[in-house]
Amino acid sequence: MEMDDMRVLVTYATVHGSTAEIARAIALTLCRTGIDDVDVLPASEVQDVRPYDSVVAGSAVYGGRWRKEAVGFLERFGLELFHRDVWLFQSGPLGHSAQYIVRALPVNVGVFAEYLRVKGAATFGGKLDGMKGGPVGKFLARAGFGGDYRDFEEIRLWAEEIARAVGMRVVMSRNSNGRLSRAGVRR
Ligand SMILES: Cc1cc2nc3c(=O)[nH]c(=O)nc-3n(C[C@H](O)[C@H](O)[C@H](O)COP(=O)(O)O)c2cc1C
Question: Is residue 104 within 6 Å of ligand 1 at its C-beta?
């Protein structure tokens, strides 16, 4: 690995897996823009953030809170994160206007956001499988909130903003099949 290789960590906390899929989608977009090395790890499994230039950290929202593994990640690595570029995301809102919901970060996460001077924070719609999630999940499903409200186009655009911010030039090109695809080169 060359000295100036760029490394980005995407880390997440999930219960039912849908936030992990968002994290992987973010990581895939970052890779496609040409970032050399993108790791995706559950928040509880991160041993060290020092190898990374930038960190994207997110959590599913349950009962208005981030999962404790994600909060624990911010607590464990606060000082190292202070010296890195950090982006935060959360996934939760359900229902057909989920992508329009502007949800503030939970208070205990917001304090990290303020003092880490995070570069950006995003809220993405969530996914609810009515058969999971205990009594509240079943209530939500019966009330009509079951389904997948994640918008992967929105997620990709957000990840491209991150790529631009770390110095990648995100360009659009057409594949041989005529579909638009994005690629990036280091500026
Ligand atoms: C018991 C329960 C509580 C929830 N509480 C919230 C909440 O307070 N705010 C919110 O935006 N979404 C809430 N949700 C929706 C979840 O955040 C959403 O289903 C999310 O996509 C789950 O992510 P995961 O699959 O990574 O666990 C809740 C879901 C369940 C089942």
Answer: no
